[in-house]
Amino acid sequence: MENNLILPDLKDRIQALFIDLIVTFLFAFIMTKIFESMGEVSDHTRLWTFVCVFILYDPILTSLIGGTLGHRALNLRVRRSSNTTKNILFPVAIFRYLIKATLGVFSLLAVSMNSNGRAIHDLLSGSIVILKEKK
């Protein structure tokens, strides 16, 4: 891991999480309104839509653009700990998210307990959250 990285504190990461919760609930609300306007939409379609919103939001954005909308709003980026210039791969992002969702806040508490500021889900997935320098 590079020594010149700027690591966000726990407060920044929790703020990003709250932004993401708001965003995902807004997506779900919008999808509900769209389904209502369409009339007859199967329960199966509704279920899979909400699964995609709540489960795939984080991994897709993390692997494609280096973080969720909450991360981006706070200038945070999720990178590979072995090469902080690269985003994590989609399968790794899914694994990371599943650990984060399973352990919840307990995973984030590790940020303040280790010198490299990594949560449990970061340690297990080989990722790191860094503060992107402003240009």
Strand coverage percent: 5-15%
Helix content: 55-70%
Shape: elongated
Taking all Cα atoms into account, the compactness measure Rg is 16 Å
Please state how the strands of the largest beta sheet are arranged side by side.
Answer: 1-2
Topology, number of strands: 2
Molecular structure report:
- By secondary structure, the chain is mainly α.
- The protein has one domain (10-131).
- Helices cover 61% and strands 7% of the residues.
- It is built from six helices and two strands; from the N terminus they run αααβαααβ.
- The protein has helices spanning 10-38, 43-65, 69-73, 90-103, 105-109, 120-125, and strands at residues 76-80, 127-131.
- It has a two-stranded antiparallel sheet.
- The longest helix has 29 residues, at 10-38.
- The radius of gyration is 16 Å and the shape is elongated.
- The model has no long low-confidence stretch (mean pLDDT 90).
Summarize the SSE layout with pairings.
Blueprint: H1 10-38, H2 43-65, H3 69-73, E1 76-80, H4 90-103, H5 105-109, H6 120-125, E2 127-131
Antiparallel strand pairs: 1-2
